[in-house]
Write a structure and sequence with these properties.
Helix content: 25-40%
Radius of gyration: 18 Å
Number of strands: 13
Number of domains: 1
Largest sheet: 9 strands, mixed
CATH topology: Rossmann fold
CATH class: Alpha Beta
Number of helices: 6
Distance between the termini: 37 Å
C-alpha cells in the first residue's frame, strides 16, 4: 500500500499556527478541525465507487456511489480532535473508538477501551491520530482493529516522525498511511521534533 505525505499549503499554514507554543486551546482546536477537513478530502480520494442509475430533473444518467460504508476510528484521546472535521466532510460516516495506554511494567501499548459499529468488516476504516511518534500505539490499535475483522484500513495523522512511519510500513504494509507533515525525528524522550507538543493536552487544555 502507499505512504502519502500531503505537503498541502493550507495544512502547512494551519499547522504552523498549531505548532506555536503561544497558540491557545480554542485556536489549536479550530485549526485541527480545519486541517481534518482538508485531510478528509485527500484520504478518501482512492475509495472505490460503483455505478448507480438515477433520474436527474433532465434525464436518466449513470452516477457513482461509494461501495463500502466508512468508519472513523479515533485513537483516544487526541484522535477525537480529528473526528468533527472528517464528519463534516463525510456526514454518513460511523464512528468507533479505541483507547490505548502503555503498560508501565512491560512498556507495551495495551487496549483499555474499544467500541465499533457492526459494519466494521465491510467498511473502509480510517484510523485517526494527530501524532505518529514511535508508532507503537498506532500499530497496536491497527492490529486490534484487524482482529475484529477490518480489512480495508487507512491511517491518517497530522504530524509523523520517520521512525513511526517505518514501523507502520513494516508491521502493516497493507495499510495506507496519509500524513499531513513529515517531521525531522524523535528526540531521546520519544517526542516528535519539531512537533507540536502533546496534542491531547493542547486540544483539551490539560497539563
Amino acid at each position: 500500500m502507499a505512504t502519502i505525505i500531503l505537503n498541502h499549503p493550507l495544512i502547512d499554514h494551519k499547522l504552523t499556527i498549531m505548532r506555536n507554543k503561544e497558540t491557545g486551546t480554542k485556536e489549536f482546536r479550530q485549526n485541527l478541525d480545519e486541517i481534518a477537513m482538508l485531510m478528509a478530502y485527500e484520504v478518501t480520494k482512492s475509495l472505490p465507487l460503483q455505478n448507480i442509475e438515477i433520474e436527474t430533473p433532465i434525464c436518466s444518467m449513470t452516477g457513482k456511489k461509494l461501495v463500502r460504508p466508512i468508519v472513523l476510528v479515533p485513537i483516544l484521546r487526541a484522535g477525537l480532535g480529528l473526528v468533527d472535521g472528517f464528519k463534516t466532510m463525510i456526514p454518513t460516516a460511523k464512528v468507533g473508538h479505541i483507547g490505548m495506554s502503555r503498560n508501565e511494567e512491560t512498556l507495551q501499548p495495551e487496549e483499555y477501551y474499544a467500541k465499533f459499529p457492526s459494519c466494521l468488516k465491510e467498511a473502509d476504516v480510517i484510523v485517526l491520530d494527530p501524532m505518529l511518534a514511535t508508532g507503537g500505539s498506532a500499530c497496536a490499535a491497527i492490529t486490534n482493529i484487524k482482529k475484529r475483522g477490518a480489512k480495508n484500513i487507512k491511517f491518517a495523522c497530522l504530524v509523523a516522525a520517520p521512525e513511526g512511519i517505518q514501523v507502520i510500513e513494516t508491521e502493516h504494509p497493507d495499510v495506507d498511511l496519509i500524513v499531513g507533515a513529515l517531521d525531522e525525528k524523535l528526540n531521546d524522550k520519544g517526542y516528535i521534533v519539531p512537533g507540536l507538543g502533546d496534542a491531547g493536552d493542547r486540544l483539551f487544555g490539560t497539563d
